[in-house]
Amino acid sequence: MNEKAQIKVMDNGSLRVTGDVELVDKEGNVYETKKAFSLCRCGQSSNKPFCDGTHKKIGFEDQSRVE
Ligand code: FES
């Protein structure tokens, strides 16, 4: 049985993706990914859609919680 996919909203950073998931572009082309990977949500990565750590340099802030 495959591990259920999970997307974790990291404090002041990326979206951490784990589990059985396929990442595709608008045309359905599949990105090569590792077992766990991070997606950019600050909009400043040079390697979109992946996080490249730039959020730390720019001081991106968000600590979203379920309300
Ligand atoms: S969230 Fe990490 S570079 Fe954008």
UniProtKB/TrEMBL annotation:
Alphabetical list of InterPro entries matching this protein: FeS-contain_CDGSH-typ, MitoNEET_CISD
Domain Iron-binding zinc finger CDGSH type residues, every copy: 22-61
Keywords: 2Fe-2S, Iron, Iron-sulfur, Metal-binding
Superkingdom classification of source: Bacteria
SMART domains, A to Z: ZnF_CDGSH (SM00704)
Pfam families with a match to the protein in the record: zf-CDGSH
Iron found in the keyword field: yes
Name by which UniProt lists this protein: CDGSH iron-sulfur domain-containing protein
